[in-house]
Design a protein that fits this description.
2 domains; Alpha-Beta Plaits; globular; four-stranded antiparallel β-sheet; single chain; alpha+beta
């Protein structure tokens, strides 16, 4: 019987982890459908959705992935995925990109995530980093239809009245149109920014 899994792997970063994990999936006749990977301060993490045409037990899959690293190197978590149960978190949502920059303070992520949650806005993807007292957050949001985006941006800005925080909220299409890097060479040595 076919199975779908969500696979999460974490480790100290090194060269070749994606190759090792994808090899384990392939050897069990699995197909990776989605993959998101990042390295944070020297730690590698990856989340994958994979489809297996035949019956594979989660413990066997976890062992196959773990065996691709040194003893105890790869932390593996596997959950069976229900394809039929997948539904949008926010019905008819539009995607917006939120960017916040400013001085680093404790609780920024909690403050913004709590505010967004209170407005039924789902965080679909999030990147945040702090370096030498400065903070950067970039989030892809699912915003319910009819939301007042101007008010939303002002409310987010007002979460930090005591700090010089810059907030940008753009529809995903506008963000992509103004931020897209075209890596195809126009001429040798020249890259185009769209």
């Amino acid at each position: 019987m076919p199975k779908d899994f969500v696979i999460n792997v974490m480790s100290v970063d090194r060269v070749g982890i994606i190759s090792s994990v994808s090899e384990a999936v392939l050897e069990l006749d699995g197909n990776i459908e989605d993959l998101s990977q990042t390295v944070l301060r020297g730690y590698f993490t990856i989340i994958i959705t994979a489809h297996f045409a035949r019956d594979v037990e989660p413990a066997r899959l976890a062992a196959a992935i773990s065996d691709r690293g040194a003893s105890g190197e790869l932390g593996v978590l596997i959950k069976q995925r229900d394809r039929q149960g997948a539904r949008p978190v926010v019905a008819d949502a539009e995607r917006f990109i939120l960017t916040i920059t400013g001085p680093d303070r404790k609780g920024i992520i909690h403050r913004i995530s709590s505010y967004l949650s209170s407005r039924n806005i789902n965080i679909e993807d999030l990147y945040a980093t702090a370096d030498k007292e400065s903070f950067l957050l970039i989030a892809q949001l699912q915003v319910p239809p009819g939301a007042d985006m101007e008010r939303l941006q002002m409310d987010v800005q007002d979460l930090w009245p005591e700090f010089d925080v810059r907030v940008s909220l753009q529809h995903e299409n506008i963000f992509l149109a103004t931020s897209h890097v075209d890596f195809r060479q126009a001429r040798p040595g020249n890259y185009r920014l769209r």
